[in-house]
Amino acid sequence: MxxxxxxxVQYHEGIGRRKSxxxxxxxxxxxxxxxxxxxxxxxxxxRLGDMDAIMEPMRVVGMEGKLDxxxxxxxxxxxxxxxxxxxxxxRALLAMDPDLxxxxxxxxxxxxxxxxxxxxxxxxxxxxxAPTYTKR
Length: 136
What we know:
The protein is of the alpha+beta class.
């Protein structure tokens, strides 16, 4: 996470995680290109509302359309990946400008959502669901 300079291309990186997904997000000044795993973001996240959720940190800080975003995301499902990209984007924006911390913190974009799937316990049907009790 931080500034990296190589071949005159300066970018800022943020790593976001959610459930079992991890996203490496790189931002640099540009025209608003958004690429996820080599595809345009609209093609990768086709579910209704996912792109809005991902773009929220940029919208809050007023950087929408001013940055090129490149994302490498792996693991988990659609919801986890959406959350991971959003988290990584917020962290990358913070790396670019530390003064954005209060705004991003207030929106809840910097907090890692720690909720994970709970393991199934022996003797139960699921993590907490017990088999039906019968007296006789």
